[in-house]
Amino acid sequence: MVGRSASAYERELRYLFEGDPASVRAYARKLPPEDRAGFERLIQEPYLVIRGAGSLGFDLVALRRDYAFPIEVKASSEPVIRFTAASGRADQQWAAHQRAVGRVGLTVLYAYRQVGRSTDEAWRLFLASPAPERGVLKFVCRNLPPLSRTAQGHGILRWEEGKPLSRFVREAYYLEERPAFPGPG
Q1: CA distance 164 to 171
Q2: Nearest Cα residue to 169 out of 16, 7, 1
Q3: Residue 183 lies inside a defined structural domain of this protein
Q4: Which residue segment(s) compose the domain that 26 sits in?
Q5: How do residues 89-109 score in pLDDT, each as one tens digit?
Q6: CB 57 within 8 A of CB 49
Q7: Buried b (16+ CB within 10 A) or exposed e, 42-73
Q8: pTM across the whole model
Q9: How many domains does the chain have?
Q10: How many Cα atoms sit within 13 Å of 134 on the Cβ side?
Q11: Would residue 98 count as lying in a domain?
Q12: What is the dihedral of CA 51, 54, 58, 64, to 10 degrees?
C-alpha cells in the first residue's frame, strides 16, 4: 500500500456508498461524462453503510431497502492480490466470509482499490461467494465477476477482471426500478 492506511480506503468506499456529495463528485470526475449522472445518483439515493470490526469480520455492510451485502475491502498498488500472501490469512478470511453469508442467504463482495490509479476509476468489485438463488440480491450480483482461484484453490484478485464500481451502482439502481413481477405481455 502507498501513503494511506487500509482504514482510509474503507472510509473512501463507505463515503461513496453513503452518498457523501464531495466524495461522490470527486470520484465521478474520473468517469466518462455519460456515466457521471448515474453514479452521482448515490447522493440522492445512498446506501446505509455499517463499518465492521474484528480480524475476520467484514469491513463494511451496505444496506438498501430490498437487499444487503457485506464488503471486504482490499487495496494494493499491484494489479494482483494473492490470498496466499501474509501466511494465508486472506484465504482463511475468505472461507469464514463464505460460511457466514451462506448460512443467511447473502453474498460477500470484495472491493479492490488499486492505489495510485489516476487514469480511470480505482474501485473494482468481485463476487466472493455464490450468488443467492432468489431475491433482489440474486439479480444485483448476477453480473459480478467471481473472485478467481489459483490451481491450488487459493483466492486471487486481478484488478482488471473486476466490475467497475460505477457500473455496479448503475446496474443496481436499474434493477431497483424494474417491477418485481412484470405483467403479461
Answers
A1: 11
A2: 16
A3: no
A4: 6-175
A5: 777 777 777 777 777 778 889
A6: no
A7: bbeebbebeeeeeeeebbbbbebeebbbbbbb
A8: 0.85
A9: 1
A10: 1
A11: yes
A12: -30
Q: DSSP assignment of 134-156, as one string?
A: SSHHHHHHTTSPBPEE-TTS-EE
Segment 35-80, tens digit of pLDDT: 899 999 999 999 999 988 655 478 999 998 888 889 999 999 999 9
Specify the residue for cell string 469491513.
59
Strands 123-127 and 163-164, how do they pair?
antiparallel
Cβ–Cβ < 8 Å for 157, 148? yes
3-state helix, strand, coil in the chain (%, to 5): 40, 20, 40
Does residue 1 form part of some domain? no
Q: What is the CATH number of the domain that holds 135?
A: 3.40.1350.10
Which amino acid belongs to residue 124? R
Give the residue carrying C-alpha cell 486471487: 156
Considering the domain boundaries, does residue 150 fall inside one? yes
